[in-house]
Amino acid sequence: MPRLSLFHAGERKRFIAFRRFPTCSAVAALRRQPHVRLAPLLKTSALSDTWTGRCFCFTLPGSTRHTLNQDASLAFDEESNSHDPSTETPRRGVNTKQLVESLEQVNQLQSRLLLQFVNLPLDRRVLYRDHLLQESVTRYQKGLRNVFLALQRHVGNSAAAQNGFPPLTRAMLQSMKTAWLTLKGLSPTPPKDAALKGAHLEEIRSFYSALLCSGLPTRERDVGLVLEELQSSELLEPSASFYESVFIASWTLTDVQRPPAVGEATRTASTTARDTTSFSSVSPDLVVGEAKQLRRDLAGDLACHYMGHALAQPVSFSAQHHAAVRRETWEVFFCTFANTQPAPKLMDLWWTRFLEWADNQQAAQQSDHPVESRTTSTSDLGVVSAPSAPLPYQAVHAVLAWCAQSRDIERALKYFNAVNQRGVTLHASTNSGSTLPLTLADSFRRPGSLTAKSTSAIVQELQLALLVKLMASTKSVKLDGGLRALVVRDVQRQVDPAVLYAAPWGVLNDLLSGLSVPSAMQLLRRCSLVTSDCATDEQGAADGAPDEAAEKKASGVDKKNGREIPFYIWASLLRRCCREHLQDQAESLFLFLRRQFRLSVAEKRELIEIVMRMYTTMQPSDFPSALDLFLQHILRTPPDEPAVQPDGVLYELLIKAADSRNASMMLFLEACANGVTLTAELFEALMNSTQLKTVASLSRKLPHDYASSSLDAQLKIPAEADAHLRREEALRARGKPLYDSTGDAG
What we know:
33% of the residues are buried. A hairpin with a 5-residue loop joins strand 1 and strand 2 (65-67). The longest helix is centred in the N-terminal third of the chain and has 25 residues, at 130-154. By secondary structure, the protein is mainly α. The radius of gyration is 34 Å and the shape is globular. It has a two-stranded antiparallel ribbon. Strands 3-4 form a two-stranded antiparallel sheet. Strands 5-6 form a two-stranded parallel ribbon. The protein contains 38 helices and six strands. Among the domains are: 4-83, no CATH class; 93-257 and 290-341, no CATH class; 694-733, no CATH class.
């Protein structure tokens, strides 16, 4: 066998390509060399005699055999030096026809994911419950993930079939892109024809956008690798669809996921109490009894970084489909940003930047089409000289959802009035339901459309979804300035009863947060009587509510003539009753929910915490009732109900409601014995466990014959604030023992 040093430079490349992948063109190139003998090479390449007999023919994807011409052109030889996976025979078990059909459905799957994502703010629970956000995104990513796994197996990566999707590399991206273009019927190399070149570039952008939406980039550096590959190898700048995919993919990155040890330790702390210590170096963050699974602040930083990257690109109004930022991009960005719980000042800065972008885009469009802008300005009487562009609907809805979650009434009114003065635009890719007629769409773009009466049911649904966010911003706020009454008046004036009763449950949940309990019960009764045909499947999917069949199975009730009220609506109503300390209604509703639904452990624990908070926040706290509820449903389990394990939040409520220091200390020791994780909040409840200690300590400093003054009238100190202390002093003076809830004598 000749040495490598005997080869020329071009021959050495062919020899290396032959040793890596002995294609027929490489064999022919070596046979043309007079001083190279092919037999030793075939022998050292561990090739069988059978392959040697077939080395002069190969199979193309069309299963057509061609005989290799020994006088092939030099261009064909140069292409053969680099292995093209798309020209290889598909691996066994990969159905090429089925894969092509799956690639044709990628755009549809991606559109469904985008539509589901921008409709997440309809349900305000997504803004603080991590598992709902994760399930809503990953449920629609499964289809895209399966397509790319099949594409990876098609290019010949066995690791994709065995160990899932391997880490992303440049070579993998290139091979998958080549296979994508080949299966789409396009050439992997850029064509010279202008029309074909545009389709080729569009497919490349679609490939990278769909790859990000599939959730296969699991790390932040994977997203950077895809961006770098698009810019360096393809010499393309990211389009708007690329940035929208990045915003959606940010929720599935491992950098955003919290360490599983913290969540698992929090969930199973009570079950492994005797095997582990009760002290934890990391205090868990609990929301409604569930450990946080996402680092929302990191997702917000990532979204702001890439949105700034998109705004830094020059805007090309001549090619809108290749622009870096469009109206849909702002909608996806604000849906991501609202879920990250940003600071109010940061939201103001992005809102200002959003308005500037919309005004600049409208000014540029008017400069390109001066005739249309002149006719539009003369037809509308209320148009001002300064550019005041309408805003995309889903972006406005996401910002108002953040205001409702932050209880920021001032900013909610400020943003709502700004949008009402500009108008709203709708886009087919980010809005579910029927498409508005052209005349209604134009009227919705005009100023004052949010508070104007419309005869279209679609417009009324859109107006209702924005109005209820103003109502939800007043939740748990006593002095609302009359905003609740204004929203109720506008809803009664603008929305028909049929549209209101058939609204998604997420919208109704926001509306119920500002109504009185009797009004909320009456509204729920009327909504439950509406037939299921009125509430479409698209509304249920956009609402983010549980599946209807699963809900019927969980509740054990099959209503043929009405809508099934989901569990979280009843839980929200129970929370309203407990917040207003309507004890009789709350206890009756608590019993009704336990009998009506087949509750899971998380749902049962949520109900117990709601009722315990009612007993704890009473003045004074109802410690016997809270302790009885804890004994009957936590330490013991009623028949046919799930067992709920105690945790730090429930013990914290008991300690706050304790009527003596002895009771609070005994509860604290019991929590330590059960393996509950000790947190700063638990110690704070233990230190402040005496009821009415602030008012009692203030009144004890005053003499009994203190004359009241104008200052006392402003303070409003109860005259009997220290009555329990005087009773204890009187009993001690008479030599009688004092008993508390623990049975100990003081």
